[in-house]
Amino acid sequence: MNFDDTPEEAAFRQEARAWIAANAPKHLKEELELSGFGGLYLKSEDPMQAGKAWQKKKAEAGWACLHWPKEYGGRGATPIERVIWGQEEGVYAKLSGLFTIGHGMCGPTVMAWGSEEAKRERLPTLASGEEIWCQLFSEPAAGSDLAGLRTRAEKATDGSGDWIINGQKIWTSGAQHSQWGLLLTRTDPNVPKHKGLTMFFLDMRSPGVEVRPIRQMNDQRSFNEVFFENVRIPDNQRLGPVGGGWNVSLTTLMNERLSIGSGMPTGFPDLLDFAMATGDVDNPAVRAKLADWAVKASGLKFTAFRALSALSKGETPGPENSIGKLVAGAMMQDIARYAMDLQGEAGVLTNAADAEARGKFQAMALRSPATRIEGGSDEILRNIIAERVLNLPADVRVDKDVAFNAIPTSGRK
Amino acid sequence: MNFDFSDEQKQLRDSARRFLEKQSSVAVVRRVLEGDEGYDRELWQGLAEMGFTGAAIPEEFGGAGLGYLELCVIAEELGRAVAPVPFSSTVYLAAEFLLAAGNDAQKKNYLPKIAAGEVIGTFAYAETAGEVTAERIKATVSGGKLSGTKIPVADGSIADFAVVAAQSGSGLGLYLVDLTGPGVTRTVVDTIDPSRKHARIVFDGAPVEQLGSGDAEAVIAAVYDRAAVLTAFEQVGGSDRALEMARDYALERIAFGRQIGSFQAIKHILADMYVSATLARSNCYWGAYALSTGSAELPEAAASCRVSATKAFQHCSTNNIQVHGGMGFTWQFDCHLYYKRSNLLALNLGSLSVWENRLIARMRARNSARDAA
């Protein structure tokens, strides 16, 4: 039992550290440290340009998408090397938020299901940050029940083999910045819901695609609605077989799980620093609350370390890693409200100039509801743990063997 | 990074589990719970023969000299089996006090016998309600004789010797006392978990031998940190077993025409039990690492795994009963063995709030040092 690198890992770490020390945008370090909770806010530079510049620099030196094969813009690194890179990159990784979905989910799906041509054309520009990707999965009527989605893909009648897309997606992070999207559609409504889906990737600049940013409760606009009106996609942008889209989507979602080790923020280090600065930590009641969160934060940290150990032995991370977001999301919300409580009436203030701790806990309170929903709600994560880790029976699914177009669409009688 | 037990340590865990499933079966636990004997002698002897009581005792003092990671593995299995033996009193406390403060003769006298399962030791500390502090200790040594009352003393009725914290002219000190000798009166007291007996011990001029001459409070704190890690492993073992019992029952029990484990209300209880047990286990691995390497992180790691594992075991043992419904409240079902043990272990070594305070004090010191640097 140890935290030590193997000699190879230590050498890799040294190389990564040296390159970062020589190349990172150090002038942004302080701003990046203060930035967080739902967005990248830089005053001195345009965040998009800063993010793209750092990604390009990394790609040119072979530090982008480390675990991807070299021919697709990666480094051919091991999973553990990817994690070591993440540890060394530290605060500068915040600059890469725009690329998280593309690198973590869309890219691996194209890698697993795309043609050689598609991989060579699309992946290097994704790795280098020249192009941004989004994931077009959720819909207004298909969130946790993703397989209930309704966006239609139909064969064009002109014999071109193209597909015509009509419908709507929602909660698409970064769609307004994206050049490409990974799109899950329904191609056959006459079969049960999981069986009639097909996956594509599409050019977001295609005619008929309309992106509308959603004004969120925290007054940011990171999520979008995306509308498709007779959007044409060539058949060579189909990923996997017609009707096999559900299986392809599982590749995407499994890769989400592989993005471990970076660690979800919990807000605990911020709260401890705050309570020490104010002297609230002298109160035993405050210490009891702090201790509860402290052991959750350290428990998450060392759970991630255990997963990394398994990864370095060649094991694949499983559904047990669902606990990270489940614990961190609720914790961030609780911590934010507790910090505001400690601030008394001043806790209502949000402007960085007036508010305690520059308003970070207020920002956290307003962002945290989304964390508990996006990428699998708390309830779905508990179902995953119960069914796939503890082997409890699957939920009764009344729509499982029913043709999609025969499933009720409203609870009203 | 290899943040896991080795294959050899996992084999040790498997053999400990097989041994305890047989030797510390529910029938054995219940015999101690309902009887007057105080512990299961055959199990205790068996643990010594397996080399478990001396796992972390150096070979020069008759131990197996395996190490603390191995002792953590054994502790987890003892917790899982709610073993009715004086293992924690003797191995985590008495032996550790001897290793931390004993002179060569004292170590040579006691440690080989502990390793061989020939003696039972304990630590006699608390006298009144509330956090035990030096000010609250009234037991006094004068002229080599100890007087005062200690309650509750884990395994006090069956132990052969005790390490006792008592006042003298020069402040708080630690003393070795032969509990079978003169001036010692002990009576079993009723506790929340009768599968682990506790006693009131009245000392009236009992002869003592001083154990170490340094700062007794510092020695106690250091030994308690070590014992906290090992106890936390017992708590994690108990948490896992309580979760398994609840899961198995949820698969077996039918209501409304379905396995109750197919209802989300039950699934989510079980998922939350898994989460708390997993967080506690991960904290415990940190504690095991710090304990086995003598890391400067030990005080913080020990308090973290203690707080986390206390909460997890109470959470899992409580919800195990909830999932079982009314049957979980019966004497016949085994849920109460885990519920009782979880409440006992939450208080032995100092209560949750004491450890919560300790944890934050230690994190605070670390942050202050960081800010000063």
Short recap of the structure:
Chain B: Residues 227-354 form the Acyl-CoA dehydrogenase/oxidase C-terminal domain. With 413 residues, chain A is an alpha+beta fold. Chain A is built from twelve helices and eight strands.
β content of chain B, as a range?
A: 15-25%
Q: Label the overall shape of chain A.
A: globular
Give the name of the CATH architecture of the largest domain in chain A. Answer: Up-down Bundle
CATH class of the largest domain in chain A: Mainly Alpha
CATH topology (level 3) name of the largest domain in chain A: Butyryl-CoA Dehydrogenase, subunit A, domain 3
Classified in CATH, the superfamily of the largest domain in chain B is: Butyryl-CoA Dehydrogenase, subunit A, domain 3
The largest inter-chain interface, given as chain pair and residues per side, is:
A-B, 51 and 51 residues
End-to-end gap of chain A: 60 Å
What order do the SSEs of chain B take from the amino end to the carboxyl end, as H and E? HHHHHHEEEEEEEHEEHHHH
Give the count of structural domains of chain B: 3
Helix content of chain B: 40-55%
| Total beta strand runs of chain A | 8
Q: At the fourth CATH level, what is the homologous superfamily of the largest domain in chain A?
A: Butyryl-CoA Dehydrogenase, subunit A, domain 3
Oligomeric status of the shown chains?
Answer: heterodimer
The chain-level structural class of chain A is alpha+beta
Total DSSP E strands of chain B: 9
Q: What is the count of distinct domains of chain A?
A: 3
| Strand residues, percent of chain A | 5-15%
- So how many helices of chain A? 12
Largest beta sheet of chain A, briefly?
Answer: 4 strands, mixed
User: What count of helical segments of chain B does DSSP give?
Assistant: 11
Keywords (chain B): FAD, Flavoprotein, Oxidoreductase
Pfam family, one (chain B): Acyl-CoA_dh_N
Family (chain B): Belongs to the acyl-CoA dehydrogenase family.
Domain Acyl-CoA dehydrogenase/oxidase N-terminal (chain B): 6-118
